[in-house]
Design brief:
By secondary structure, the protein is an alpha+beta fold. The protein has 11 helices and 10 strands. The C terminus is likely disordered.
Length: 334
């Protein structure tokens, strides 16, 4: 693990013994959450600081995902990126020590009777956009996250959002537009079409923009448009009527100057979301433009073209088609 971290050229965070991980979590006494990667436990450092300890499922693999997370996040320093405090790597026992986020993840608030108002959700969306802009353009090395979704957005005491879970992230040179991919990565419902098939283009930082757009549409209330239907894919998630509703309301805002602030914020988020999920990666805005749209007036946002919805249920053959395609972008390209 040390040689790989040195190869990434980073100053590694503190390395803990696994016995120290057990001690700080009181033998994994309080579980905060669970996922495909393993479980997260509440812990306390010797100085009394609360931490979240992510314990990965024991595996005989070489730990590529683990190294990815340590290497990626150790390069970052931003208010909207979760802070990695330390890690433990002992054969097949691996753990990551993060700052503790008392409000947990965003998905907990995107349920029926959401306790957060739209203004707060829009501010969270802006914070996530600023975090992504930093990953894409603010680091010495561009970081593409590849798994932006509500479950990976953590919230602090003041609901300041922090992007987490960099296990699928890719590091690439600033001028590298298309990322080398060896198989699809991400979560169904948030994955950009180019991740599944080269027919849509190459995987890039614009793939994060797509996932972000899907999340923003969900934050704005897109679930309410899907009646009694499990959200399985982009296809079932965003039927035509959502787009038609957004266009209709936007025209009304222009024509009769509706002064319902909540409706204006909701429609702004819908418009931004639809810009972000354009089928062609080149049609999606850079995150700097997303921030500008969210923080500006709704009148300044053009109505986006209707995205061509695609079927996320694809074959293994199509998934494997997004392999090793790298090209350089012009310095003027987003």
């Amino acid at each position: 693990v040390e040689s790989i971290l040195v190869q990434h050229g980073i100053l590694a965070p503190k390395r803990y013994k696994y016995s120290e991980i057990k001690k700080m979590t009181k033998s994994f006494n309080e579980k905060l959450g669970k996922g495909g990667y393993g479980s997260v436990y509440k812990g306390v450092l010797p100085d009394g600081s609360l931490v979240a300890v992510k314990v990965l499922i024991e595996t005989d693999s070489n730990g590529e995902e683990f190294i990815n997370e340590v290497a990626s996040i150790s390069r970052t320093a931003h208010v909207n990126i979760v802070n990695l405090l330390g890690f433990s790597f002992n054969q097949n026992k691996r753990a990551l020590v993060y700052e503790y986020m008392p409000k947990k993840s965003l998905d907990k608030f995107l349920i029926n009777d959401c306790p957060l108002d739209l203004d707060k959700l829009c501010k969270i969306a802006v914070g996530v956009a600023k975090g992504l802009e930093y990953l894409h353009t603010g680091c010495n090395t561009r970081i593409v996250h590849f798994d932006i979704k509500p479950q990976n957005i953590l919230l602090d005491e003041d609901f300041c959002p922090k992007i987490s879970d960099f296990g699928l992230a890719k590091l690439c040179k600033k001028k590298q537009s298309i990322v080398s991919m060896l198989g699809a990565r991400g979560t169904i419902g948030y994955i950009a079409p180019e991740i599944f098939s080269r027919n849509f283009g190459g995987a890039s930082h614009k793939s994060d923009v797509y996932s972000y757009g899907m999340m923003v549409l969900e934050m704005a209330g897109a679930r309410n448009f899907v009646e009694n239907e499990a959200i399985q894919s982009s296809e079932s998630y965003f039927p035509d009527k959502i787009y038609e509703h957004v266009v209709d309301v936007t025209k009304k805002l222009d024509d009769i100057m509706i002064d319902n602030e909540e409706q204006i914020v909701r429609n702004k988020m819908f418009l931004v979301g639809f810009w972000c999920i354009q089928t062609s990666p080149s049609d999606r805005p850079p995150m700097s433009k997303v921030i500008e749209m969210l923080e500006g007036s709704i009148e300044s946002i053009l109505i986006p073209p209707k995205p061509v919805l695609w079927n996320a249920r694809v074959s293994d053959k199509e998934i494997s088609s997004c392999s090793s395609y790298v090209e350089r972008e012009n310095s003027t390209q987003d």
